[in-house]
Structures are given as C-alpha cells and as structure tokens.
Amino acid sequence: MTRPSSVPPPVTAVLDASSRWLPARLGEVEELLRQAVAGHGERLGEDAGATLAAGGKRLRPMLVLLCAGPERSEVAVRAAAAIELVHMATLVHDDVLDDAPLRRGLPTVAATSGREGATATGDLLFSRAFALLAEAGDARSVALLADASVALARGELAQRRDAFDLGIDEQRYLSRCRLKTGRLFECACLLGRADEALREFGAEIGLAFQLLDDVLDVSGPPERTGKARGTDLLDGTVTLPLIEAATEDPGIREVDLHALDAAKAEALCDRIAATGALDRVRARALEMVAAAKRALDRARFEPEQRQLLSLVADGVVQRYS
C-alpha cells in the first residue's frame, strides 16, 4: 500500500503495529477516493484531485476501519472514504471563508482557482461522499454522516459569530469544538460500529485533536503544520490557548485582533506561550485522551483493535511533539 502523504509519526506507528488487513483496507480507501474525484470535468476534476493528492493524516477513515474490524471490508471501506470526502470538503470550504493561501504547505484551491472554483470543489466532494453511501444502499451511514455534516455547519457558523470576540469563554469554545471537530470523529467511530462507548471515545479524541491543533497554531513549527504561526489569530478565531493566556496576562484581552498583521500575530503567539498556556491546554488534551481510553475499555474488541485505537488516541496529541 502507498501511504497517504503528510502522515505524522504517531499515525505511521498505528500502521506499523497493525496486521496486514489495516494497511490493505486503507489502500482500498485511497483507491475509492481517487475514483470518487475523477471524471468531473477538467477544472473541477483537477482541483478535487489536487485536494486529494495533498494527503492528510486519514485519521477519520482509520477510525472507521478500526472500529469496524477486519471482517466488514466493503461497507467499512465505503464509509471510510465517504467521511474523508466530507472532511476534505470542509477544509476546502474553510479555506474559502478564511481566504487561506496555504493548506498543508501547498496552495489552496481557493488560491489557485478562486472562491467560486473552491466552493464548487467542496460541493463536489460533499456530493460524492453521500453518493458512495447511497450507491451501497447504506441508509444508516447516510443518516450518521448527514447528522455530523449539520453539526459541522453549526460549528462553523458559531466560529464565525465568535470571530474577534475576546470575551468568548472556555465553555463556548468547547461547545463550538464539539460541533466543528468532535462530531466527525464521533461519526467515524459509529460508522464502524454502533456502540455508545465508541461515541464517547470519538467525541473525546476529537476534542483533544482540536485542542492540540490550537496549540500548534501558536507554537508551530510552520514547516510541519503547513501554515504560519498565528493563522487563527489573524482570522480572529479565539481558541483555548488565547483564553487561557488571558487569565495569566489580562492585558491580552485588550489586543485588537483586527489590527494584527503577520509580525504582530507572531508576537502575540510568543506572549501566549510565555504564560504557560500551551502546556496547560496540552494537559487538558491529554486528560481527554485518558477519558477516551476509559470509554474504550467498555467496548468489546479484539486485543489488536483495542491496542490500535489506543495508539490513535495517543497520536492526536503527539503530533509534532
């Protein structure tokens, strides 16, 4: 199997620790993704193909496959490809909203094809995701993914409403993250297997993933994250490191986020880091991983599946550490 590009070491560790069935299934997912984005016109196909070729961690498809286990191959492979297509679509649309020039260190579709081209590409990816499930008559998976997609939209709207508002508190931030990030991780686990313990597992590691993403936005390194430090600050996105830092350095609440440029965003990142906020937020993420593992203990799995899911949970907070 050819592994997806930009896979961090913790995810590689899952593949290295697994039996042959998991890399083989992920290879089937990659092939299905290639088929799903091909043949939709030269411009649209090129942009969708570039989004796929940019790679990614493939954490959500991996969760689907691991929760399903080695026996549920075809159904799980389709669900895994579908959830990755939805994830890709949200990234393309996010880049339109943020006017982002780079994603994973490469030019975004918004930068190369404009807002209209990127919007159309994201729409294509969304439609192909649900087509994959509909073609298999998988009504349960359609319902789960549709529900998660609605949560994503609500989370995005909440983030836009909260933009540049330094009065946002931790509870509001976490509520937004549960919608925008946690629900898709939760959905990935449930697509693999209907189990309330897995719903909790997915939700907790999804939140931990977002917290670590927000730490990385402040700390970098840009050559690994694929974006400049302080990108969220420049977008006016108030994250937990910023909220935490303001409790130690109240003057941060007086910063005008609208007035930031790249240099000022870097300086604010340094100011946030100086408060120790990054270590505190990372510790919170580790607590969420521990809660996820406790939920995993309540699910019935073969030893290998349990071990690999535990490695995935560890991996969400070990990126670039």
Task: Describe how the helices and strands are arranged.
Layout: H1 9-17, H2 21-37, H3 42-53, H4 59-68, H5 73-98, E1 102-103, E2 106-107, H6 109-135, H7 139-162, H8 170-192, H9 196-219, H10 222-225, H11 231-234, H12 240-248, H13 262-274, H14 277-297, H15 303-315
Antiparallel strand pairs: 1-2
Task: Determine the strand fraction and express it as a percent band.
Answer: under 5%
Structural class: mainly alpha
CATH superfamily (homologous) name of the largest domain: Farnesyl Diphosphate Synthase
Largest sheet: 2 strands, antiparallel
Unreliable spans:
1-6
Count up the domains. 2
Estimate the mean pLDDT confidence.
91
CATH topology of the largest domain: Farnesyl Diphosphate Synthase
Tell me roughly what share of residues is in helical segments: over 70%
Number of strands: 2
- List the secondary-structure elements in sequence, H or E: HHHHHEEHHHHHHHHHH
- Radius of gyration over alpha carbons? 19 Å
Q: What top-tier CATH class of the largest domain fits best? A: Mainly Alpha
- Which descriptor suits the 3D outline? globular
CATH architecture tag of the largest domain: Orthogonal Bundle
- Helix segment tally: 15
Order the strands across the largest sheet as they lie in space. Answer: 1-2
Please give the alpha-carbon distance between the first and last residues. 27 Å
